[in-house]
Design a protein that fits this description.
Layout (H helix, E strand, L loop, with lengths): L2 E7 L7 H13 L5 E7 L3 H5 L3 E3 L5 H6 L22 H13 L2 E8 L1 H11 L1 H5 L4 E6 L15 H22 L6 E6 L6 H5 L10 E4 L7 H15 L2 E6 L27 H13 L3 E5 L1 H6 L6 H19 L5 E10 L2 E9 L24 H7 L11 E2 L2 E2 L19
Parallel strand pairs: 1-2, 1-4, 4-5, 6-8, 6-9, 7-8
Antiparallel strand pairs: 2-3, 10-11, 12-13
Length: about 425
Amino acid sequence: MAKNAFYAQSGGVTAVINASACGVIETARKHSDKIGTVYAGRNGIIGALTEDLIDTSLESDADIAALRHTPSGGFGSCRFKLKGLEESKAEYERLIEVFKAHNIGYFFYNGGGDSADTCFKISQLSEKMGYPIQAIHVPKTVDNDLPITDTCPGFGSVAKYIAVSTLEASYDVRSMAKTSTKVFVIEVMGRHAGWIAAAGGLVEDQGIPVVILFPEVEFDKEKFIASVRAKVEEYGFCTIVVSEGAHWPDGKFLAEQGTRDAFGHAQLGGAAPVVANMVKDELGLKFHWAVADYLQRAARHLASKTDVEQAYAVGKAGVEFALNGDNSIMPAIERISNDPFEWKVGKAPLSEVANVEKMMPMNFISDDGFGITDACKEYLLPLIQGEDYPPYKNGLPDYVTLKNISIDKKLPDFEV
């Protein structure tokens, strides 16, 4: 009998994570002789632990196809990290019980670095706990910090959104600078990696003066203020792109709130007003600031066509790799050339992906630490190419909301 599959979404959702879900489910449906039903976990891995499994076979082909142009997580996501086998033995035993009860032999986990770690641990169930399961990590993260893969699905669309937003807001500031606002500050996501912030630098070629604050470069207040002053003196205005992960030399984040999320990461948010007030206090300039926050990762209306295609491709490849017998791997984007831009999907072992962060290489950051180099632009530009607009209805994007019907439970309740 064909084994069933379990698919789940994890961590912060993106504009294209549902495109990966579409790739997984559509490909599995084409191989119904080898993969039975694809069950989706409601709210990620928690859905497996609580046996809250969504029967995706009850969704029409049209609705599954519509996932490709719908943002966020169609099945719900979570921030929940499984600990080691010995520390969380009850949770692993519960997973095996659920997998056995529903004949699940394939596990597709769609997420970032912490999700790769969870997927890697589950891939070891066969060896350590005697249950055959093929675990494939489907990459996703706007932070673009997974190793080995050229880029992470979700990043290209955020990069496009930030580049466009930086450009448009800068045009606004430029028009008002003579008598009003001279500095605009936009805060972007990225945590420890400055990839998203770097995207703001793409507007420099259109004559926009930009100062970027990267997590990879220790924040130097004196140098920063001098750079802003010089830009304003030359251009009459300046735009600042600050990563939420920008930090002082002692490691403390400019945006640190003193709280932590479910993965144990410092809860960030608030670098923009900190930076803007520095500009006011030191230079006396009028400013405006904005925090892109959820807007940057939810903006499917402005998604990169390249990003959508790559997100779908890694979902499709994940199923194909599993059918070929692969386990404990991640479909990885491999760049073949920049011009013309060509890429393919290869594979990376999860043992080399889990808990590894890919930072911006220093040759992508300008010598003064506040801009990007030509090498960085050559890397970024192909990732934001093309438009993949969703269908519109009554002036709004026509996104899909799935029925998400759960199957009947067979096991006792489990407390998470």
